[in-house]
Amino acid sequence: MNAKEIIARRVARELKNGDVVNLGIGLPTLIPNFLPSGITIIVQSENGFLGLGPLCDEPNPSLVNAGGEPCGIVAGAAFFDSAMSFALIRGGHVDVSVLGALQVDSLGNLANWMVPGKRVPGMGGAMDLTTGARHVIIAMEHCTKDGSAKILTNCTLPLTCSGKVQTIVTEMALFRINNGLVLEELCPGVSIADVRNCTEADFTVSPNCIATPGELI
Amino acid sequence: MNAKEIIARRVARELKNGDVVNLGIGLPTLIPNFLPSGITIIVQSENGFLGLGPLCDEPNPSLVNAGGEPCGIVAGAAFFDSAMSFALIRGGHVDVSVLGALQVDSLGNLANWMVPGKRVPGMGGAMDLTTGARHVIIAMEHCTKDGSAKILTNCTLPLTCSGKVQTIVTEMALFRINNGLVLEELCPGVSIADVRNCTEADFTVSPNCIATPGELI
Amino acid sequence: MNKCMSLHEVKAVFRDGMTIMCGGFLGVGSPEGLVRELMSNGAKNLTLISNDSAFPDSGIGQLIANKRVTRLIASHIGTNPETGRQMIAKELEVILVPQGTLAERIRCGGAGLGGVLTETGVGTLVEEGKIKLTANSIKYLVELPLRADIALIKAKRADRAGNLVYEKAGRNFNPLMALAADLVIVEVDELVDCGEIDPETVITPGVVIDKIVVSGGY
Amino acid sequence: MNKCMSLHEVKAVFRDGMTIMCGGFLGVGSPEGLVRELMSNGAKNLTLISNDSAFPDSGIGQLIANKRVTRLIASHIGTNPETGRQMIAKELEVILVPQGTLAERIRCGGAGLGGVLTETGVGTLVEEGKIKLTANSIKYLVELPLRADIALIKAKRADRAGNLVYEKAGRNFNPLMALAADLVIVEVDELVDCGEIDPETVITPGVVIDKIVVSGGY
Prior knowledge:
The complex is a heterotetramer, with 2 copies of chain A and 2 copies of chain C.
Chain A: H1 3-12, E1 20-23, E2 42-45, E3 49-53, E4 72-79, H2 82-90, E5 96-99, E6 103-105, E7 110-111, H3 126-132, E8 135-139, E9 151-152, E10 167-169, E11 173-177, E12 181-186, H4 192-198, E13 204-211
Parallel strand pairs in A: 1-2, 1-5, 5-8, 6-9, 8-10, 12-13
Antiparallel strand pairs in A: 2-3, 3-4, 6-7, 10-11, 11-12
Helix pairs in contact in A: 2-3
Chain C: H1 7-10, E1 19-22, H2 32-41, E2 46-49, H3 61-65, E3 69-74, H4 81-88, E4 93-96, H5 99-111, E5 113-118, E6 132-135, E7 138-143, E8 148-159, E9 164-165, H6 174-177, E10 181-192, E11 211-214
Parallel strand pairs in C: 1-2, 1-8, 2-3, 3-4, 8-10, 10-11
Antiparallel strand pairs in C: 5-7, 6-7, 8-9
């Protein structure tokens, strides 16, 4: 299992039966593949529907996820316009938002929409999702491709939201943000020292910190 | 033809083919009966649809106008919720709003929602209609039942809107409000002196003032 | 995830002092069965948010007539003389809100918006006590969100996920209130399986609906 | 009252310097035929309002690539590298707006609202230059309406009155833009007679639609 799959699988275990979940582009879209049996989630797609499911038939050009990839819908789905989509998101009707990050910090700040002067994809729905979803989970590889830390004391890139991130899941560890960064789980084979090495932000180790049990990854 | 019918008939002549029109409770609902041939209007009902038409079949308990009276719909109708209904009204998508009045004044102010300490029906949709409709027409009998003036220099009752009324149609006359009250039409058999007698507000007589031609009433 | 509930069970959710939203326009699209349960439950000191107070002997009008409501937020009360009487006698606080503003305030409550700017009510009693803001040279009132503890709504048909379609002018405030309360209970004429409502025609997505009651289905 | 127009006639409506809204989300639900007419008309110095700038070689992406747009108001430009390049080279002004805020601003433009209060963007670059307002102890940004000279939208089916239904995720911003421009032109796959669309399923009422063009119908 690669890093992305390990992360997606761990995030899947955060979800409760019946949760309404918005999945960001890329890694988060893998999450439904790893849902434990007995757990059904309802996937919200911010381009305008609830009940996103796997692609079963031929792709329909009008049925894509928020990343533009062909997808399917489940029985009990509903289509709506962008105002309704974000009324649901902003209004607290989405239980969990899972997003990637360029940087995330110990105050729960997230940066994932621009690198000034270089790359400015735009925030899309991310600012509304982090403002409105009840539980904001960052799902990302622990470090950048060149090995620099992404979990910082303070984000240096322009923020997506201020203080809304509650959980960070990487291929090394799981943190909760609760008056600072708290290490709650270590992936098998990873030491606390390994995590400190790869994390710029200081963090406390929860007294209940566990090695993520095998069945959870 | 009674006073209400005379008024409704004259208002009907103000409407252009294709106009989207909201008709207040009571007298204004008579207007569609008097549309000249070749003129089709689209009636907006603020309880949530466009394409209100006469009752043709058995009354359907879910199909009533904004006054709660059973009605029908025409081909090409559309139902929507109250937010959409007032998005249409406030957003300038309703061409004409025809309402009754307790008082209306030479500044275009309207009072039609409360008599303090006595009768407070509430404004319903009237404040939004007068704010948003492109043309606000007051259709009412010239005086109260006890003969007092309703067209005043300044409304004394709490206002429904400030300066939005453009046209007043009564069984005696038609006024436009254009930097003050301007008499534009007299009904047959009515003199300017008669109108002054029944009107508290001062008004100018348009140089183009005409006796409403027979075919217009 | 079973959202179905019998009308009988509904009674247990009501408490004195609650804020309750109720769909309907002069009784059309009003959840008559749910209101009957609220009547028989006996909860009092209610704040009621509804377009109007219907008629003294029907729907939510009965709640007013039975002195169960201490505060009413509505756009129109003219069809229920008892509402006006209690208001003038100061037995009932009535907050009159322009209908379009009422719709937007409820929509804000459900959509996580802090309010809207509207020209409606400027220069009238409605502007009293409100924040005013001038934008693009137009004077606006800032109208704040409305939410409730419970929303009682009426639809024509639900699937088991709570997806709703309405009937004609019975739609009115129901889809707005469906997002704007902590507990949302819908009364429907008909319950169908998931997949039986075309996803393109769903007006209220099921995720906002907590409980479904079938009319007359004790 | 004939709202039908050929694709060919559309070209005449565009002028240099216009503000144009265009429906679609990464090209899905985008009025390809109308955009093609806008491309071939040659109008430039356009302000474009759209969720995203799609791809360099398709839909509104081509307008960007052809330097026809001087100002873009959008939530996301990552799929069109040319947009980012022009922005960084200061050839194109890009105003990035959170997607939910963009939806609300367009809705305000169509609904006669002066703006909305949203928490989205508080504590970020998005709050720069905006009015802030604290209500119920929460800090909000006041986001102002967006309107356009022309809205180009895409629907699946129209009746001759302009009533519209959409297709799946192709709905997105189209129903909002349909109320927010002085001239609203819809491109549809199919045109039917009045009465052939169930009034309960209409998403956009025909009164807001000025012109109807059938895709491919030259």
